[in-house]
Amino acid sequence: MSYTLEDIVRKFAIHVNVESYGNGHINDTYIVDDEPKYILQRINHAIFKNPEQVMSNILGVTEFLRKKIIAEGGDPERETLTVIKTVDGDSFYKTEDGNYFRMYNYIENAVSYEAVEAPEQFYQAARAFGKFQNMLADYPAEKLYETIPFFHDTTKRFADFKKAVADDAAGRAASVQKEIDFVLARYADTGVVVDAIADGRVPLRVTHNDTKLNNVMLDAVSGEGVCVIDLDTVMPGSLLYDYGDALRFGASSGAEDEIDLDKIYFDLELFEAFTKGFLEEVGDKLTPAEIELLPFSAKLLTYECGMRFLGDYLNGDTYFKIHREGHNLDRARTQFKLVADIESKLEEMKKIVAKYI
Ligand code: ADP
Ligand code: GN1
Ligand code: MG
């Protein structure tokens, strides 16, 4: 690199200390530790091939949210991300070597958790994701670029997975045959939501598509939802993606990369807390097919993510950031343990959903 992070920060007219921050798997995040604080991010342009389009989406969505929050008497500095412009008035800065940096206001007095500590916390996260969904219900979807095409198209993900197995770029396939077979055995699940979208039973909405617990900030004192962050994948999608993906991560009894699989199960108490919060916000606008598919979506999104982790392991860890040898394989294994557990709990999950519809 021919520049320092301080050089980059100065492009936003701020002179200060910068340190690595957060636990995202995709972008490089830094905190600009000043008064007030800022978040600086290098957009992962290997994954987001068109950062200009990502920023166009984010600018559009955050400005739209800002107006709504003000109209409702809320605090736009906390309840949505604000894109900080460069000294030249742009929403990002592109370096000579082709990296893209952006800056956000730092959401004060709020926490993003890596694991659910109590059901109430997950209930609050669910309400925040549900509200986010509601606030964007009348956002003009045609203005959104598809920042990662086919992001939650599980059938396409399955095809990518099969290619990763066939290519076996890192020479690892033979050692994970059991996990590969687990994925292949569930091919029939891959088309369930994409088909329901294609035949109109499940509507396309403006969705977040990456509703991991650490992508929502909760108030440090009250514990209530403050702001949904990580807006790179806001695109037309299914509400089932947001619901299912949040449960994948948050209703697990353990960390996404837990090595001891005996510790991993799908926690129905957390499932219920999330379902209650989410349906309190969006329950009245669901179609019958969406309601029917809610429990299944938790399984589908967990399966899809596991397949992505395992595919990345087979490809030689080129997509998700890893912090140890076999990290993506460990992640894949927790997902498959959860999928198997969800399969045994689907009937109970249906009953829980029915309580809140
Ligand atoms: P990634 O796409 O890599 O997941 P995120 O945008 O989710 O990146 O940021 C990573 C982490 O940084 C978040 O989980 C959160 O803890 C923290 N973070 C990001 N944006 C902000 C913000 N505006 N204010 C406070 N914390 C933030
Ligand atoms: C990534 O960016 P982050 O860490 O919030 C990924 C999600 C996965 C998640 C798994 C753009 O989310 O799709 O579900 O990791 N984001 C992208 O933890 O691929
Ligand atoms: Mg994130």
Characterization of this structure:
There is one protein chain. With 357 residues, the protein is α+β, with helices and mostly antiparallel strands. It has 2 domains: 5-106, 2-Layer Sandwich (Phosphorylase Kinase, domain 1); 119-356, Alpha-Beta Complex (Aminoglycoside 3'-phosphotransferase, Chain: A, domain 2). The protein is built from 11 helices and 11 strands. It has helices at 5-10, 51-71, 76-79, 119-135, 154-167, 177-184, 191-198, 239-250, 268-282, 288-315, 327-356, and strands at residues 18-20, 28-32, 38-43, 83-84, 93-94, 100-105, 110-111, 205-207, 216-219, 225-228, 235-237. A hairpin with a 5-residue loop joins strand 5 (93-94) and strand 6. Helix 9 crosses helix 11. The radius of gyration is 20 Å and the shape is globular. The structure holds adenosine-5'-diphosphate, 2-acetamido-2-deoxy-1-O-phosphono-alpha-D-glucopyranose and magnesium ion. Magnesium ion (MG) binds at residues 24, 214-215, 230.
